[in-house]
Amino acid sequence: MKYNMKLLSIIIPISIINDRVFLIERLKTLLDFFIYYNDEINIIVVDSSQPKYIKKIKKICDNISYYYYLEIDGIYSSAKARNQGALMAQSEYILFYDVDLVVKNNFIEEVLLDIDNLKAKAKQAFTIYPCLYLSESQTTEINKKGLDDELFEKNKICYLKGYDDEVLYLAVNTSTILVSKEHFLNVGSYNEVYKGHGYEDFELIHRLFKSYQIIGISDDYIEDYKTAFPYLYKGFRKYYAYYALENFFQGKFSMHLWHSRPLTKRYYKNRINNFKIFDNQIRYDFNMLYHTNNNTNKDYITFIDKLMNRYGYNNKNFIGLKRLHKDSNNKYKGGINRKFRKFFLHPFLFFKDIKVFKINKIKNFMLL
Questions:
Q1: What angle is formed at CA 266 by the lines to CA 265 and CA 269, rounded to 5 degrees?
Q2: What pLDDT does 361 receive?
Q3: This prediction's pTM
């Protein structure tokens, strides 16, 4: 396919092994969706699949996207695949995108408008598109009945009301990042030392944040505090949310189709090593960032409350950013699953949580 200069390149890494064959159909559906925007965008698929799947994937990409096969030895590295896609992009702006994501019909139009907005701000400006992670049952329903724009709004409302039947959680800071190619290369691209699952996106956002810091930080910036509820964010996740959360309220978000994530695979187990690399990096850079004496936790809560009010969601009825609704069916199951994942992927933080829980329990007892 002839590769023409366009304003936006969308980079899609893919790696298919035996238990991920379903991704082939997801890629086909995705490319069929994007074909309607061929005049405005280029699609770059960076394939690192097992050899027996290469021919089929390449055929799907014919006449729709630019295909490149990238051999990756050992544990798969999405950082390496995305960098390759960025190097190949001939567009002024790039958008990183995953094959498991679905978006509304007008998503590309919104992204193109966002490019104009970024240009008006600064050459270092970037934005992040959040993602609603769908439940297995909701994904099955979509596979059977298809997808329309109304479902995005429906799932958004259900999530904001605190229900998790359709949506497991909201990922605010994702890999779906829109940035100019020149600036992406200037900050050093993705760090290819990251392999497997986790933290390569945070480290890229950290470097983008350093170059375009719209808010001062406090000492908690280096804290890796993970929660399913954005209202309770602490540490770097809280600061990066300023670049993403309004997109969610504006309807500019993706939905992630469910798939299993076997924790025993090296791809997921390597998250511990990735965390150590990321943690060392942000601690090293911490003093170089713009700090503030303000109460950043209070400022962050005010930031969310203003967004809620601006887009017509009152705190009384829309509690999903803070907690689950008392009638949520999966409340207990979801909590147990998250704790198990933290124990397996992040044992240090798991035992830290237990310690904090015990201390708080003792304090409460002494106050009786």
A1: 90
A2: 42
A3: 0.89
